[in-house]
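Researcher: Please predict.
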Amino acid sequence: MPQATAHPQKLDLASVNHDLADADAERVVRWAADTFGAGLVLTSSFGTQAAVMLHLATRVVPDLPVIFIDTGYLFPETYTFAESLTKRLGLNLKVYQPLLSPARYEALHGRQWEQGEQGLTQYNQARKVEPMQRALRELGATAWLAGLRSQQTDHRASLRPIEVQDGVYKAHPILKWTAQDVHNYLTQHGLPYHPLYEQGYRSIGDTHSTETVGDDAHERSGRFHGLKQECGLHLPETVEEDLSRGSSGL
């Protein structure tokens, strides 16, 4: 991975986003690699379309650390999909897990995903957000590539190519891509969808919070029983962080 050529704290995000407004996905990845160097990581849930970002980013930065948060509640097919893509693409995979095993967690806290929106928020914080924050700290990440797309949620529709979340920069190379763009990329490069895609799963997370959807439904309508669009990984950690982002024009 190249050495960083600019300190992240000195970036003028307004200028950067102006320059990258019409950039294609590969250019955004290259910009991030040149800018953040060894501080750059990629995150992947190994969901429906994960192969796109994994292939796109590692073609530019082959040894890029790939963070995979294993909540302990993923589909068996997700684990085998992750293993298959790791071998095929030669991924530098970094698996992070919550501090408590699923059995111990349920014994202490119950099945929080069945306890309404507040319970689901607490579950996501413990099983997803905490491991992600730990991963970013331990890997010394100053920026991460995320395969978010504007069409997926209301929050994602408000994003720009480069943002800041909880003190870490985030780059969104395929932000403007449509589902058709994703399909075209997978087809062009002979890459697979997640094995459950053909069974009607359009957005795949934990087994207890993922459902099949109809062909005409929004791709994330099968997540979190309709209570949420986001799991928390791509949202500000605190109200203060959200207000700070807003006051800085981010």
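Model: The chain is about 40% helix and 10% strand.
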